[in-house]
Protein 1
Amino acid sequence: MSGLITFEGIDGTGKSTLVRALAARASAIGVRCWQTAEPTEGPIGQLLADRAVRMASAPAQALLFVADRYDHQASIEAHIAAGQWVLCDRYDLSTFAYQSVLLERQTDPRHSLSEPLAWLGSLHGRSMRTPDATILLLGRVEQMLGRTNMRGGGQDRRFERVELLEEVQRRYEQVAGAAAHGRLFGLPARRVSILDATASSADLAQAGWDALVPLLDPAYQPPAAVK
Ligand SMILES: Nc1ncnc2c1ncn2[C@@H]1O[C@H](COP(=O)(O)OP(=O)(O)OP(=O)(O)O)[C@@H](O)[C@H]1O
Ligand SMILES: [Mg+2]
C-alpha cells in the first residue's frame, strides 16, 4: 500500500507537528512514510521563500506555487512507486484556499481575473496526483496565529492578517467539501477528515491516526487496553 496524504489548514494549526507525529507512529508499526512539504526546497520553492517574490503580482505568485507542485510530482511519484506513503504538509487545497482569496482581493485591474478559483483549477489540471486523503485542521484564527511567531507589523497588520485568514479558512472548508465529493474541478474524490486544531497535540495525533490508519494499514488492530 502506498499513496499521498496531505495536511492542510491555516498558519499555526499544527500541520507540521501532526505530520511528524503520524510519521513516527506509522514507522513504529512498519509503515514506510516519506515526509515532504510545499513550498518545496526545489528551485521554485526556494524562489517562493524569497521575500522579494512577495512583491510579485498575485497571479504570478499563484503560478509559482503551481509550478513548484508540478516539479514536486516526480519525487512524490517515485516514493509512491517505492511503496511509501507520502505525507505532504500543504498541497493543492492550500493553493485553492490562499491564492483564490488573494486573487480576489488584489486591486490592480491589470491582474483581475473573472473567476480566480476556476483559473487555479485549470492550472492545476489533471497532471498532478490527487491525494488519497486530506486532513484539514480548523481552529479559531486568533488562537492559531498566537502560536506562530507573528513578528512586527503592530495591531493593524494583525487585524488584517486575522481577517484574511478567516476568509482563507472558510475557503478551505468549501474546497475540502467539494474535494470530498469529487466536485472539485472534476478531480477524483478523496477522503477528507476535518480535525479540531484547538485540541491538544496528543489528541490531534490520535484523531489523525484514527482517520488514517485504515488507509495506512487496513489490518491494524489497536493494542488492547491494559486492565
Ligand atoms: N495541538 C496543538 N496545541 C498547542 N500548540 C500546538 C499544537 N500543535 C502545534 N502546536 C504548536 O504551535 C506552533 C505551530 O505548529 P506547527 O508548526 O505544527 O503549525 P503549522 O500548521 O505547521 O504552521 P505553518 O502553517 O505556519 O507552517 C508550534 O509552536 C507547535 O509546537
Ligand atoms: Mg508548518
Note: Residues 3-216 form a domain with the Rossmann fold fold (CATH 3.40.50.300).
Protein 2
Amino acid sequence: MNHYPWYEVLSEYHRNHLSKSSERCAIVFDIDGTLIDPRVMQLVVLKAYDQVNETSWFNDKELNDLTIYEIYIRQQLMEWAIPVAEIDPICEFYQQNHWSEQIVKDTAALYPELSGLMRQLFESSRTDVFFCTGRPEFMRKLTIENLHKILSSYRDQITNYNLHMNSRDWEYVVQEKRRSLEQLISVHNVIAFVDNEPSNLNGLTFLPMSCLLVHADTTYKANQAMPDRCLQISNYINYPPFVDALR
Ligand SMILES: [Mg+2]
C-alpha cells in the first residue's frame, strides 16, 4: 500500500475532489523533470557526441541508464566508467549542446506513465491545469511549443494564460514559483502542486493544507530537504488530506 506512484495518488485525489465538491479546481505542474523527461535530451546529446566524434561510448545506453540529475553529467560518466581522458571533451560538448534551442524543441517528451493522468485532468470540465516553470521568460514561446508537443491532444487548452514562467533569473526559481502560486491561489482553487525539486516544494509550504504538495519522484538536484507535509511515495499514505479525502 505504500508504493503507489505519485501520479496514481494524484489521480485518485483529483477524482475524489470532483466527486465531493462542485467547485472548479486547479492543479499546477512544474515542467522539466515533472512532465518532460530530461533524460531524453541528455541521451540525444551524448549520442550526438558519439556521432560527431566517431566514437561509441553511448551506443548501448538507454534512458534508464541515466540515473543522476542532468547537471551531474561528469559523475554519470564516471559511474559508467568512461575513460578519464574522454570525460572533459564529452562534458564540454554536453554543456554546449544541452539546452540549446533546437535540442529543447526536438527532445521534449512526456513521461509516458503520465498520459492517463493528463487525459483525466484535461478532459475534466471542472479542472484547470497550470504550468509553473523555472525556465526564464525568454523561453516562453519555446515552452508553449514543448507543451503543445507533449500534450498535443489538449493544445487548445494550453495558452500563455496557463503558463507561469520565471520572470527573473535561474537563481530565483523558488521565489518566482512562490510569486506565481500566490497569484494562482488568489483566483483559483488550487488542490495540488507538483514538482520534482524538493527545494521548490519547500518554498511553497505557505500554501493552505488543502493544496497537496506532490513530489514527482524523478531525478533532482542533490542535498535538498523535503517538506514534512509533502506527498512522497514513502509517506503519502499518512498524509492527512489524502487520508481524509479517501474516507
Ligand atoms: Mg523541475
Note: Confidence is low (pLDDT under 50) at residues 233-237.
